[in-house]
Structure formats: structure tokens, C-alpha cells
Amino acid sequence: MSTAQSEDTTYILSHRSKQAVEHERLNRQHNLIQQTFLNNQLIHPTIALSSLQGGIADVACGTGIWLEEMAHALSHLHTQANPKDEQGVKSSVNPMPRFVGFDMNAAAFPENPAAGIQLVQHDCTEPFDARYLGQFDLVNMRGLAYAVTEEKFARVLENVSYLLKPGGYLQWTESEISLFKFFPETPDLLESRKVIDNERRARGLVPYLPHFMLQSALSLKGENENQVLDILHFNLRPGGFCQDHVNTEVNLQFSEILAESVNLFLQSAFMRMEQQDNQTQNVIAEENEAHQGQLDQLQRLKSSVSEVLAVESVKMGGIFPHLVAQKNA
After folding, report:
1. CA–CA separation, 7 vs 29, rounded Å?
2. Closest CA to 270 of 325, 192, 181
3. What Cα–Cα distance (Å) separates residue 160 from each residue in 95, 155, 171, 220, 314?
4. What class is the 3-327 domain?
5. Mean pLDDT in residue range 239-260
6. How far apart are CA 5 and CA 125, in angstroms?
7. Prediction pTM value
8. Preceding peptide of 184 cis, ω within 30°
């Protein structure tokens, strides 16, 4: 499958995937995720930083910001573990791990990645190069739910599992649009959630992430039909205005990110309907009129949601599925 095909027919935000504004949104989203439902953590507490001696990978790495922050955190740990000797030379007892990011959209990669970070263009629905197999103590995976069809997602998880060393960890985080919350709820916002849900079904995306994540991780089998991954942690973590301990300003910023996501999803649905309209020929007048009515209704919904969110009369939060698993020896 080519990159162009996968982005055009599956990725729900493909119309922004090569734009600087989308890359900036990804970075803001990362920062706010850390501050809200991950409690400023890069990895779950079940994964000890000291156990990450070999390689660390980020699948669907976007701009590489998670890897950059992991490299910074581990460099501090590395400095503490490897003090300078009397001649001022660091010992090499605990070398820094290898950092590799994979993403099909190389346009998001920075021109000059941070030192020690390698960014590789790769479609994770396809097998990874043999040189990366079994090389990583930790693989981070986040935000693939709106880029990969349900049919191919199981293949992604299998491919990612081959990256892990025995005993290595998978950390997997997604967002689930049906678990976005509006305070207060409005008819148009509730309708927008239905439209987005229909849009991802039309694109063959996973219909409900929490069930899919658990089922796919538990059903992944090795050559001897042994379970490949042991689930160490799974929960639905509240973010934004679904929790109390984060300060109001951060929650407002998180609310803006979720609102922007809603608008982008509606725009994606509108663009797909327009493309269908342009590709359809010789339709009878009744069908054409009905299709135009759907476009008009979607345009009205987009405008209404934008107006409500622009004046910040509605706050948003959400519940986000988060899974940590370990590869069996």
C-alpha cells in the first residue's frame, strides 16, 4: 500500500498531514496529554527508566517530540549513572539507548532531529526492516486510531511486536471520539459526534477503541500459539474537564485541542462527501438533491460547532484508553 493511498483513503486528517499547522497541533497535543491524563509522565510507572538500556522506538512518531523528551530524560539518568572519573572522562558502563521514530508522513519530521534520534519514513501496516526487529526495550504507539483501518490494525500490532525484545514493553495510547464529553451538551455537538462516528465507519476505522485494544493485544499469538503480550495495565484515563487535579488554564488548552479535533473531523467528512459528489456522474435528480442536502446540513453543523467553540461557552474533556503490555520471553 502506498503512502498516498493510505493517507487519501484512510487517514481522517490527511488534508492537514503535510501542513506546518498540523505539525504544531501535534506538538501542542503531546504537551497537553502529558500534563493532563498522563500526569506529566512520558512512560507508565510500571516501566522503569533504568530498564531501558537498549533501544526505544516511537511508532507514528509525528514530529518526534516524544522521542526528544525521552532522550532528554534518559540523558539525565545516564549522567547520574556514569559520573566522570578523575580525568573528567565519563565511564561507558551504561550507554545511552538507541532512539528511532517511525512515521509514514516524513513531512512532519524536523529538518534537524535532536542528536541521537533517527526518524524513518515507514508505513507500519507493512513489516519493518529486519535490522529493527527485536531491538527495542520500549515501543511507544499513539494516535493511530484515525489513520489505519480496523482490518489492518491487527497487522500493525503484530509488526510492532516484532520490534520488541523479549521482556520489552509496549505503551499504547489512543483517543475515542465517542468518549469525548461536552459541558454543557448541545444538540449540534451531540450530532457532530454521530457524524464523526459515521465518518470513521465509512473509512473502515476501528468503531470503538477500548474493546479493540484489549482484544487485539490478548489475541496476538506467536509461532507456538503462545500469547505474545502480557497486559500489565489498561484503563480509561480522564483528560481535560473530566478531571479535577489539573489547573483550569491547562484544561482550557486541552479543551481547545479537543474542539479543534472535532472541527477537523467534520471537515474531513465534508471533504469526503464533496469528493463523492465530484466523482458521481449521471445520478438522478432526486439522489443529487439529497446529496446536496447532506452537504448543506454538514456545512451548517460545522459552522454551528465552530461558533459555539469559538466563544468557549462549551468546555470539553474526554476518556482515553491507555494500555501497557510486556512481550513474553
Report:
1. 20
2. 192
3. 24, 9, 11, 11, 38
4. alpha beta
5. 87
6. 13
7. 0.85
8. yes
